[in-house]
Amino acid sequence: MNSPSLYCSFHLDLDDIANKIKHSRARTIGLQFPEGLKRSAFFIAGELEKRTSVNIIISGNPCYGACDVDMELKRSVDVLFHFGHSELVKGLDNVIYIETPARTNIKNVLAKAVAELGSGTIGLVTTVQHVHRIDDIKAFIRSKGISYVVGTGDSRIKYPGQILGCNFSAADIPCDQYLYIGSGTFHPLGIAIATKRKVLCADPMTTSIEWVDPDKILRTRCGVIAKCHRADTYGILISTKIGQNRAALARRMAMLAEKYEKKYIMISLDNITPDALMQFKMNAFVNTACPRIAIDDAGMFSAPVLTPVEFEIALGHKDWNEYVFDEIRE
Ligand code: SF4
């Protein structure tokens, strides 16, 4: 039996997952859900238990993305099923990614977007929730006589046209403006700042469209950097999450700190939260983990949290006009 609330919004084939479990001969499996799917954990686990009689352990840790595989749980089960994201960390044995494509009618929002787009070639970008509709999106755009281009991205990107909050490499394409199909403004803001081109956001969930405006976030980040001009002590943050660990970048930041005669400590964490950093009495932090942390949670930390590029600007090592959103590329 399918859960009506779950199946309204996402496509999830429980029979296929059950077959994968049987095929693996696993006796104990782990299930890891992003926050939005945790409410369905009880139902999904029950259905899989009924179909396979397997023992199930559910990860209760926060899960922010495909970068965030629960390695501790992976070690204690035969197979770990990671829901809601496409594969990012390559070569992990006994981890199966279960994508949960959104069930949406994209035609309405595409019709609105097409009426708003200017002339020229459109770069199409979207998130994993909608990337399975990319052929429908292309067909619709083509039917309106609009030329488009879709990028393939680097090795962290599984599907053409797909972008992550930490990777806009599929937007490295020759186009005049972008059409982003998805929710939220973080991804399109990153593209707008990186490419200096206009990005129209079309949200299939709400059917709203809006041109992204990077000015406000750029002013905010400029203010955060300005607060650090006199900072003498820095905490350089390194993530222990398998897909967020950028130890080499952290070391480069440490060398820069030395060059500019700043004191620093390297801090290794799993979840970087305001509480976790509160007791480190540093003037500022440099985040080499998920690039979204410095931006999304700005203002919640006890001291400014800079991205690596922002740190370089604060030190005077780079100029403000070199500002880009931080990305984790291959
Ligand atoms: Fe998402 Fe951040 Fe992980 Fe990238 S690093 S996949 S933006 S959670």
Describe this structure as you would to a colleague.
By secondary structure, this protein is an alpha/beta fold. 34% of the residues lie in helices and 18% in strands. The strands form 3 sheets. The chain has a 5-stranded mixed sheet, with helices on both faces. The protein has a 4-stranded parallel sheet with strand order 2-1-3-4. Strands 11-10-12-13 form a 4-stranded parallel sheet. α8 links the parallel β7 and β8. The chain binds iron/sulfur cluster.
The major β-sheet equals: 5 strands, mixed
CA radius of gyration is 21 Å
Unreliable spans are none
What spatial form do the alpha-carbon principal axes imply?
Answer: flat
What small molecules does the structure contain? iron/sulfur cluster
Strands, total number: 13
**Residues in helix, %:** 25-40%
Query: What is the C-level CATH assignment of the largest domain?
Result: Alpha Beta
Order of helices and strands: HHEHHEHEEHEHEEHEEHEHEHEHEH
* CATH architectural arrangement of the largest domain: 3-Layer(aba) Sandwich
Mean pLDDT: 94
Number of folding domains?
A: 3
- The name of the CATH superfamily of the largest domain reads Diphthamide synthesis DPH1/DPH2 domain 2
Kindly report the CATH topology of the largest domain: Rossmann fold
Strand content: 15-25%
Alpha-carbon distance between the two ends: 41 Å
Number of helices: 13
Please give the order of strands in the largest beta sheet: 6-5-7-8-9
Alpha-beta classification: alpha/beta
